[in-house]
Design brief:
- Helix content is 81%, strand content 0%.
- It is built from 18 helices and no strands.
- Helix 1 crosses helix 2, helix 4 packs across helix 11 and helix 6 crosses helix 7.
- The model has no long low-confidence stretch (mean pLDDT 91).
Length: 394
């Protein structure tokens, strides 16, 4: 496993350097590195590492979500409150409904199977979006109107909404959970419980740091470890109560920033260094989950469905920010920022097949294809339009 980690780091860094030289996002290079090194192409990564891939990806995602929370100011959140709620729901609904209606005609699957596919595809990727937004916040790009914060918060809640809908639809298909009302109530419950658990955890950590006067390195280790425990708590409680650990993790960072800004900046600086390694792990391992042969099975019909659904999603995204103070270019930046798919699709794309859904192989193929098509496209779009269309604060 150690050899595979070394290969991932070396190839990932080289791909990052090469793509940056080509004026492309480094994470795109890391994704392609993962595809090539993964079990479906050259099979370089050892199986032992792939078995713990999901845990490593989650740890890397925790690092960047903590940084997101440590950059979220209360006044900025207050300013972007309403658009955040709209962005969390409207784009995903537009995309999911279009896939549900068109899936049977394009892919010859049932409407319920199409709805399951729509729930998988409709999730935006925080793994792609969050690093860019953190970078923009660090460089004071778009921060005057709170645009990076808007995207951070919206994309995180979007995932909660979509995953609950997905589990509800899969439960209906398999007959394990047909109570639609209770499942729908899990959405606000998951958000509120996640924020509540994160807030309590953040306050506890703040008092611990104040009392024992930890150094920045120890504070960083503790906050990452506690955040990992929050994801474990979500998994343990999922049969009893829905808790969004990812929102909780961001809330931990937010509370630390609110209570002690100096410590928050110190922790964020340490996490920025950890992210250099975590970023490579996250995107190379996400890429390693992509099966090119499976994606090709979706064919032209899958490609067409994905782009038609993206068009519908873009309409929903634009409508969500239409009443805000953003100008046209800034609104279009929000639309582009909601394009990339990666983490959720890689995590749950194969679940329907494993659960015995008849056309689960088609659902998996389209999910994989959505990563290949939208992750690089969205990443390039965010980088280019963010630099050109968002104002830089002095």
């Amino acid at each position: 496993m150690a050899v595979s980690l070394a290969i991932i780091v070396i190839f990932g860094l080289f791909a990052d350097y090469l793509f940056r030289k080509l004026k492309l996002p480094g994470l795109v290079g890391m994704l392609f590195t993962g595809v090539l090194c993964g079990p479906y192409v050259f099979d370089i990564i050892q199986p032992e590492l792939l078995h713990v891939s999901s845990d490593l990806r989650m740890t890397a995602l925790i690092v960047i979500l903590l940084r997101a929370g440590l950059e979220m100011r209360r006044d900025t959140l207050n300013r972007v409150g309403k658009p955040v709620l709209l962005l969390a729901v409207v784009p995903a609904v537009f995309e999911g409904v279009v896939i549900t209606l068109l899936g049977p005609h394009f892919l010859h699957i049932t409407y319920l199977e199409s709805a399951i596919l729509g729930a998988i595809i409709a999730a935006v990727s925080p793994a792609v979006v969050v690093p860019f937004m953190i970078n923009f916040i660090d460089r004071k790009i778009g921060t005057k109107k709170g645009i990076p914060t808007l995207m951070l918060a919206g994309s995180s809640i979007d995932d909660v909404f979509v995953i609950v809908i997905f589990s509800m639809l899969l439960g209906i298909y398999t007959g394990t959970n047909a109570n639609i009302l209770l499942k729908l109530l899990e959405i606000p419950g998951s958000i509120l419980f996640g924020i509540g658990v994160g807030a309590i955890t953040g306050y506890i950590l703040y008092h611990v740091f104040e009392r024992y006067n930890f150094r920045a390195t120890k504070m960083t280790i503790v906050i990452v470890a506690v955040s990992i425990l929050l994801t474990w708590l979500e998994e343990e409680l999922k049969t009893k109560i829905a808790v969004s650990a990812l929102l909780g993790i961001m809330t931990v960072g937010f509370i630390i920033l609110e209570k002690t800004e100096i410590r928050a900046h110190k922790i964020s600086a340490k996490l920025a260094k950890v992210w250099i390694f975590a970023e490579i792990l996250l995107f190379v391992l996400v890429g390693s989950q992509v099966n090119i042969k499976v994606a090709l099975d979706a064919g032209l019909a899958g490609v067409s469905l994905i782009f038609i659904a993206l068009a519908a999603r873009s309409v929903g995204t634009y409508m969500s920010v239409a009443g805000s103070e953003l100008n046209f270019k800034e609104k279009m930046f929000c639309v582009i920022s909601y394009v990339p798919k990666a983490t959720v699709q890689a995590a749950i794309g194969a679940v329907p097949l494993e659960a015995g859904v008849k056309n689960g192989d088609i659902i998996l193929a389209v999910a994989v294809l959505s990563i290949i098509l939208t992750a690089p496209l969205g990443a390039v779009g965010i980088m280019v339009t963010g630099e050109r269309w968002l104002g830089r604060d002095q």
